[in-house]
Design goal:
Blueprint: H1 2-30, E1 36-40, E2 46-50, H2 53-62, H3 71-92, H4 112-129
Antiparallel strand pairs: 1-2
Helix pairs in contact: 2-4, 3-4
Length: about 140
């Protein structure tokens, strides 16, 4: 009987934890689904923050290793993609899929990891919305 009580208690705790995670997931989903920010981390490091919940799983299944291209390649592509994206946001007056601008400054050295992740974010946008941002 004691083992059955412990088992039922463990099931209730697990069910409560899953319900909490579901509520937390809904709260995150309620946040702006498509937005990206390049935020300063430490004093000289930056991090890419993507609030699109589908991007993480897409990124892990489609990315190439960071060393696949040089940092300069990622930087030049990101400069081109960000410019095209932001121009389309202005032209479409923030209609789907161009609702938000990407604050990317080509004069800032974001580091290879942020450049790499941002490059793949643009690839994700191209695939998700079936658009072409670059040549």
């Amino acid at each position: 009987m004691k083992k059955l009580t412990i088992f039922i208690f463990a099931l209730l705790v697990a069910a409560g934890a899953n319900a909490f995670q579901f509520d937390e997931y809904q709260d995150k989903k309620a946040a702006k689904a498509d937005s990206v920010a390049i935020a300063p981390g430490d004093s000289t490091e930056y991090e890419l923050i993507v609030l699109d919940l589908d991007f993480t799983s897409w990124f892990h299944t489609n990315k190439r290793p960071v060393w696949f291209h040089e940092k300069e390649y990622y930087h030049s592509k990101n400069t081109f993609y960000a410019t095209n994206w932001n121009n389309r946001v202005i032209e479409s007056m923030h209609r789907l899929p161009y609702e938000f601008q990407i604050d990317y400054d080509s004069k800032i050295d974001y580091g290879v990891d942020v450049e790499w992740q941002l490059f793949w974010y643009f690839k994700y946008l191209e695939q998700k919305y079936n658009i072409k941002l670059g040549p």
